[in-house]
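Reopening: structure tokens for the magnesium ion complex, inputs below.
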Amino acid sequence: MTAAIMSEPPAAPRRRARPGRTLVLNVTAVIAGLAVWTGLSVSGIQGLTGPIEVVGRAAELVADGTLPTDILASLRRVFTGFVLGTALAVPVGFLMGWYATARALIEPYVQFFRTIPPLAIIPLAILLMGIGETPKVFVIFLAAFLSSVVSTFQGVLDVDRTLINAARVLGASDRTIFLKVVVPASTPFIIVGMRIGLGAAWGTLVAAELIAAQEGLGYRMQQAQLYYDLPTIFVGLISIGVLGLAMDRLLLLAERRLTGWQERR
Amino acid sequence: MNAKISFQGVSKSFPLKSGDFLALDRVDLDIADREFVTVVGPSGCGKSTLMSMAAGLEEPGTGQILLDGAPVSGPGPDRGVIFQQYALFPWLSVRKNVEFGLRLQPISAEERRRRAQHAIDLVGLTDFADALPKTLSGGMKQRCAIARAYAVGPQVLLMDEPFGALDALTRVQLQDQLLDTWSRERRTVMFITHDVDEAVYLANRVVVMAARPGRVHRVIEVDLPYPRTEEVRLSPEFARIRNEVWHSVYHQAPAA
Ligand SMILES: Nc1ncnc2c1ncn2[C@@H]1O[C@H](COP(=O)(O)OP(=O)(O)OP(=O)(O)O)[C@@H](O)[C@H]1O
Ligand SMILES: [Mg+2]
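Re-run output (same inputs, fresh job):
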């Protein structure tokens, strides 16, 4: 009995797996997923294409330049909307967190627009902005802004009062306190907000590309839907997934670098 | 009459839903230049509030607080404050934390580095100067906070239960270290604590406060020689003063 308890591995190391082992498990899971997918398509589920066909279609789309053009177009929209959205969200979030007046003025709008799905904004955006790039980028911008502003603002509100007092008793001015205490202390929240904003930006992309687009992953998938072209739809889906994941990992990397000082993760 | 800090008829109330709550009632207290005063009293009797006002983080309701004869208006680097919760900037290394206040002063980078290093050496964190706070133990964090306050060279140190969260051994070490620096550099110290032994061991005078409303109950002279040693701690005189303080903290007559 005692021996059995003694030979139990301690709880803590079990939770933090070794990186190498994690990678092996990740890769195994992907391969297993592909195998199941192949199995399902071979066993004849109506219309389901297998990985081989999808890879073939991807190669075709790369060869005729469609896929790179689409990816570039979509990336440009997501990136522009995301950068503009979070670039505005950070100062607005700081303003709301720092000045009660600003908060009282801005918060109703933020909370109101947050409840409207970006898709529902599209008709309005088309009427007001035409059918060019502007409405598409705008809708993505709005989604990214709304989801990251709340997080930034919460981050500023949550800055530990004793840290602010510690800076004040050392002689810091309000400006110094803002730049040297509030900004670094809320960085973790800002980055979380950016990651949520990025997710929202990708989530809005396909909807944004409903607006009379000439290229883009979302547009391509809608075209494919008209022609019952399943492989192309898969290529689009996987591209969006891979790009979104890659950008999220980049932010995660930034987070690790910028907020490694945090006590617990 | 050369009080470094002088509380004159200081009252403070906080607005609550059920009306104003009187946290401090007409506190009169003079702390002499280079004096080491400890403040003890039941939880909630207004010790931290009193110190916050001396630090300039809060304003007295009525009465005034004088520093070198002039009313306190806001915080300043002439008063170093050490908070119970360490309050280190977690994104800065020990050295950067210590340099935080120095960067706000008109001194050269070289001077800044020299003074930071001196403060770090003083508290024995030389080998940890480039470590982040999350990698430090509680006692090391508190020593870093002390170094940060020392570095700017304040004439007054305001310490709010700085050793409260530490184990007994670390606490005694830090007490001796604090007394050691105090006897060399002779700053004025106002030191809040829950621990009667600590209050007597460190102080020239112990201020005993009472609660509801918060006020000064008694001021007890500690007529023991410095440097305080293990011998002093075990002396019958120490025991007598400790019992006196203990008694006035824990057997207070209820407020009239
Ligand atoms: N900002 C505030 N708003 C309302 N009440 C407050 C505020 N700050 C302090 N108080 C009240 O004033 C009283 C004194 O508080 P203070 O923190 O000074 O006590 P303390 O003696 O330091 O207690 P402790 O030993 O537990 O730290 C308490 O009853 C507390 O509830
Ligand atoms: Mg307190």
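Residues 76-155+167-186 of chain B form a domain with the Rossmann fold fold (CATH 3.40.50.300). Residues 51 and 158 of chain B are 7 Å apart (CA to CA). Marking as resolved unless the reporter disagrees.
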